[in-house]
Design a protein that fits this description.
Layout (H helix, E strand, L loop, with lengths): L1 E2 L5 E9 L3 E8 L5 E7 L1 H5 L4 H17 L9 E4 L6 H4 L10 E4 L4 E2 L4 H5 L6 H8 L15 H7 L7 H15 L2 E3 L7 E4 L4 E4 L5 E3 L17 H12 L24 H13 L4 H15 L6 H20 L4 H12 L14 H6 L4
Parallel strand pairs: 1-5
Antiparallel strand pairs: 2-3, 3-4, 4-6, 5-6, 7-9, 8-11, 9-10
Helix pairs in contact: 8-9, 9-10, 10-11
């Protein structure tokens, strides 16, 4: 990670705009690599309301300095600019100074597509549903498929036991070891390569020092974020009581779309949600995790990992025993075919290669 000049890059297309950042592709004229550049959302820059985003960027840069090494599963920051006007590069006349970061461009698809695409009918929740919540069908190992065997080994373990969740836990462990907590692990911030089952987290802006209140994110008198806030995100976005859909249409809409707002309220709602339909094998395991998170009773990330894995193993066992397993696998495979649509071509995702691992 180094101080860079945008003169080194040729601006490309805008690929996303959120509440905080705008993201564009760019060509590195020195290496020929495609990268992404991030700046505060232009509307916020125009109104000079981007200082909180600037502070978030600076915290992220400092956190990566403290981590001091690449972490598998995370898109690294390659460089950052001085705080200055960048009108020439972006082709606008904002005339306001701000910092830009340059990052590796992640391969794969986002587990959750953008909101505007959903309005136009794109099944934006298909990645989250297929690969995170209901991973019924697994890629066949092949050295011809988008990566070598070492890539697949690093993704780790028995695919029946939810590789996305395991990798998110591994990433969090890496940040813990450097004294940081990573939050905002919503599906739209996770890219996924189906053939190799690898994740890439594309937004680490919510990195916080462990055991240190972040005054910009915490209300006066509230409890500082800790391990249990991460646990809540894992339950909200990457666990479900629902059985795998028997029709492809069940894979369209995202799960847990609303961001985490209030810790206690979210856990109350999760507890009520799981009690409405989970079978006995899954319910006990889910209630154990929810209860410990609610009471902030986890002493380590490892103990949460053990309990979450016990829940996921119960889900996998339930899924293997489904009486309509053939029908659910057929629905899963039909939904997988949606990834050939034009929307997914804007990402570094070759559907022919990725889906070949599933016989499509």
């Amino acid at each position: 990670m180094e101080l860079i000049s945008l003169a080194r890059y040729q601006a490309g297309a805008r690929i996303g705009t959120g509440a905080d950042y705008e993201v564009r592709t760019a060509l590195d004229l020195e290496t020929g690599a495609t990268v992404v550049v991030k700046r505060p959302a232009p509307q916020m820059i125009k109104l000079k309301q981007h200082l909180s985003t600037e502070a978030r960027t600076d915290r992220m840069i400092q956190a990566w300095r403290d981590v001091g090494r690449p972490l598998p599963g995370v898109s690294p920051i390659l460089g950052y600019t001085e705080i200055e006007a960048h009108d020439e590069f972006f082709g606008d006349g904002l005339g306001v100074e701000y910092r830009v970061t340059v990052e590796h461009r992640a391969k794969g698809i986002p587990l959750l597509g953008d909101h505007m695409a959903r309005i136009t009918g794109v099944p934006v929740g298909v990645g989250q549903n297929l690969f995170a919540l209901h991973p019924l069908v697994h890629p066949k190992p092949s050295d011809d498929v988008n990566g070598d065997q070492a890539d697949r080994d690093q993704a780790g373990g028995d695919p029946e036991y939810f590789p996305i969740q395991r990798q998110l836990l591994d990433v969090q462990q890496g940040f813990f070891e450097a004294g940081y907590l990573l939050l905002d692990l919503r599906p739209q911030n996770i890219f996924y390569q189906p053939a190799t089952q690898r994740i890439t987290i594309i937004d680490c802006g919510a990195l916080e020092p462990l055991e240190t209140p972040n005054q910009e994110r915490q209300r006066p008198g509230s409890v500082p974020h800790d391990l249990h806030d991460f646990c809540l995100e894992m339950l909200k976005f990457y666990a479900t009581l629902e059985e795998p859909p028997a029709e492809a249409a069940g894979y369209k809409d995202p799960h847990g779309l609303r961001p985490v707002v209030r810790f206690d309220q979210e856990l109350d709602e999760l507890e009520q949600y799981f009690r409405t339909g989970a079978d006995d094998r899954c319910l006990a395991a889910a209630m154990k995790v929810i209860g410990k998170v609610k009471n902030r009773a986890y002493a380590s990330l490892g103990s949460f990992r053990d309990d979450l894995n016990a829940y996921l193993e119960a889900v996998a066992g339930r899924n293997r025993a489904l009486s309509n397993r053939d029908q659910t696998e057929q629905a899963w495979t039909e939904a997988l075919g949606w990834l050939r649509a034009d929307y997914w071509k804007r990402f570094l995702f070759d559907a022919d290669i990725e889906l070949a691992a599933f016989g499509q």
